[in-house]
Write a structure and sequence with these properties.
The complex is a heterodimer of chains A (498) and B (95). Chain A has 15 helices and 13 strands. By secondary structure, chain A is α+β, with helices and mostly antiparallel strands. Chain A folds into 3 domains: 3-291, no CATH class; 301-431, no CATH class; 439-497, Orthogonal Bundle (Arc Repressor Mutant, subunit A). Chain A is elongated and about 95 Å long. The relative contact order of chain A is 0.09. Chain B has 95 residues and is mainly alpha-helical. In chain B, 35% of the residues lie in helices and 7% in strands. Chain B has helices at 8-14, 21-41, 73-77, and strands at residues 83-84, 87-91. Chain B is flat and about 55 Å long. In chain B, 6% of the residues are buried. The model of chain B has no long low-confidence stretch (mean pLDDT 89). Classes of the chains: A alpha+beta (498), B mainly alpha (95). At the A-B interface, helix 1, strand 6, strand 7 and strand 13 of A face helix 1, helix 3 and strand 2 of B.
């Protein structure tokens, strides 16, 4: 019998706010332990939590980005449990009345479960809750740092629409891209801003009933999720085929050993005793407030990629560059409409401009840090600081297209305009970089090269076509790089075949 | 719910309370009394009254996303039974 996996993900994402969810402590990573804490997030008696308006906005914004419905009523409940990282002995979370529900994420995917190169995972809900403190395990004790306690945390719950490890991986990446683009979260995995619980079961292909749900808790990397599923799905299928009965349980992923292992089952099933928090008033978003949030909706990464590919005839990797770097994409887009060859403009922006900026930044950063400026304070060059205007880049592309300058010369011109802001035409004039397309002049250079290099000439005549490159190189050298390379090739070939 | 239906031991365990048999008996009677009082509320006619968790008709009470000073590190840890390296120390967590 064939078996299939049924997977649902619960993805926890820290929201990009300045302060915590219920208090004014900083939402910051990397501070000294227990320095961003106050009576509210330490769970002292008698304190009053007040919801962070921006966290509520980011939650609803996520709802819009994930095609969710936004209920006109939402509230917070207390989820009671004892664990040292939960300072109040309960977690505030949206239980039966979340701020968003019933959405979906579409993403490029061509494996099992895809339709025409696309995957879709339905979103049950994205609800707002609070993060907990961080435990560290010492020799005889455990230590708790509450800096993270009360940081706004969005839990994005998917329907069990995921069919395998690759689909889970692509879904998570698509989700992350959307959240970063929307300004909802920085999704920095290294800083633990995204964590994931994986629910996976197996069943015979063609049946509807779900198998025993097994949860793999607290995954902190997408590749870990993929590897854990690559281990767990065959494990469950093998168990069922052996005739073992799987029971609902929780497992932990051991990234080093590359296996999942069952976690100690608690004596009692969880009984969270959810009830509405008496300190927090319900949420009833008004039309005006929703409209304000809606105005922050951005073009989704996939839509942007497709638009760039279609409107400017760009290959997928170019379009992706402009999705991953939105300001760069916007910079390109402002010029692309004015150019006859958007693809050439894209090449310049992606290959040359981006590299130049990165190079300048590396150099400047080293310089600034040598002067004692903290790495975090280093001023970085951005597209708005460029010395040349976008029109100048268009002009340069035009010069290359018209074969007025060679590609090599264009690189030189670009370097100069990047450093000085001078106009391309002026640089070409000043440096004598105009390409020689004058056949007479090139013919002379070709004759000289043929006369001076009998060996490659003989090779070429003996059938070694590659020998032409060596001669071409000689001509370019004689012309000081200004000869039109295509013409040089043509003329050399004609002369040698004669 | 009648008092007999309350599993006092289970509820006590959820609240991490260790009760002596005497306390259990006493609390069982008290909880029964409280639930009996709640039962009485069922006699009220609440037709047309929306259920609510709050007595005050307020919604959307929020604050602006602004950072305010936190407690000093020393004050934050002042009540910690044990501390080391700036952390609250608790009995070792075994997962």
């Amino acid at each position: 019998m064939e078996y299939e996996a049924v997977i649902g993900l619960e993805t926890h994402v820290q929201l990009k706010t300045k302060s915590k969810m219920w208090c004014g402590c900083a939402n910051a990573f990397g501070s000294e332990p227990n320095t961003n804490v106050c009576p509210v997030c330490l769970g002292m008696p008698g304190v009053l939590p007040v919801p962070n308006d921006e966290a509520l906005r980011l939650t609803v914004l996520t709802g819009y980005l994930l095609n969710c419905e936004i209920p006109r009523f939402a509230k917070f409940d207390r989820k009671s449990y004892f664990y040292p990282d939960a300072s109040k002995n309960y977690q505030l979370t949206q239980f039966d009345k979340p701020s968003t529900a019933n959405g979906f994420v579409d993403f490029e995917f061509s494996g099992l479960g895809s339709v025409e190169g696309m995957g879709r995972v339905r979103i049950t809900r994205a609800h707002l809750e609070e993060d907990v403190g961080k435990n560290s395990h010492l020799e005889r004790f455990s230590g708790v740092d509450f800096n993270r306690a009360g940081v706004p945390l969005l839990e994005i719950v998917s329907e069990p629409d995921i069919t395998g490890s690759d689909m889970a991986y692509e879904y998570l990446n698509a989700l992350k891209d959307i959240l970063i683009h929307g300004g909802v979260s920085d999704c920095d995995m290294e800083k633990g801003m995204v964590r994931c619980d994986v629910n996976v079961s197996v069943r015979p292909v063609g049946t509807r009933e779900l198998g025993a749900k097994i949860e793999i808790k607290n995954m902190n990397s997408f590749s870990g999720v993929r590897r854990a599923l690559d281990y767990e799905i065959p494990r469950q299928i093998a168990a069922v085929k052996r005739g073992d009965k799987l029971i609902q349980s929780t497992r932990r992923w051991d990234d080093v050993a590359g296996i999942t292992e069952e976690m100690r089952t608690k004596e009692h099933a969880h009984d969270y005793r959810y009830f509405p928090d008496p300190d927090l008033m319900p949420l009833a978003p008004t039309e005006a407030w929703l409209a304000e949030v809606k105005s922050r909706v951005v073009e989704l990464p996939l839509a942007r990629k497709r638009r760039f590919m279609q409107a400017y005839q760009l290959p997928a990797p170019d379009a992706e560059s402009f999705v991953n770097d939105v300001p760069l994409g916007n910079y390109f887009e402002a010029m692309a409409g004015l150019s006859k060859s958007p693809k050439a403009v894209a090449n310049w922006v992606i290959n040359n401009l981006r590299a130049k900026i990165a190079e300048a930044n590396t150099r400047d950063a080293a310089e600034q840090m040598s002067m004692g400026i903290e790495p975090g304070e280093v001023k970085r060059l951005t597209l708005t600081d460029l010395k040349f205007k976008p029109e100048a880049l268009l002009e340069l592309v035009g010069l290359v297209e018209a074969k007025a300058i060679s590609n090599a010369a264009a690189q030189q011109v670009f370097g100069e305009m990047f450093d000085t802001g001078k106009a391309p035409a002026a640089i070409v004039q000043e440096k004598g970089l105009a390409q020689v397309s004058d056949t007479g002049a090139i013919e002379t250079f070709c004759d000289e090269a043929i006369a001076a290099n009998p060996a490659p000439v003989a090779d070429y005549k003996a059938g070694k076509v590659a020998a032409l490159n060596s001669l071409k190189g000689q001509v370019m050298k004689l012309s000081k790089g200004k000869a039109n390379p295509a013409l040089v090739g043509e003329i050399l070939e004609r002369k040698l075949k004669a | 719910m009648a008092a007999a239906e309350i599993n006092v031991q289970y509820v006590a365990n959820l609240a991490r309370l260790a009760l002596t048999p005497d306390e259990e008996k006493k609390l069982s009677a008290q909880l029964g009394g409280i639930l009996g009082y709640i039962e009485k509320l069922k006699e009220l006619d609440v037709t047309g009254v929306e259920p609510t968790a709050h007595a005050v008709p307020l919604v959307n009470v929020t604050r602006a996303d602004e950072v305010r000073p936190s407690l000093s590190h020393e004050d934050a840890l002042r009540n910690a039974p044990r501390q080391a390296g700036g952390l609250f120390l608790v009995p070792k967590i075994v997962e």
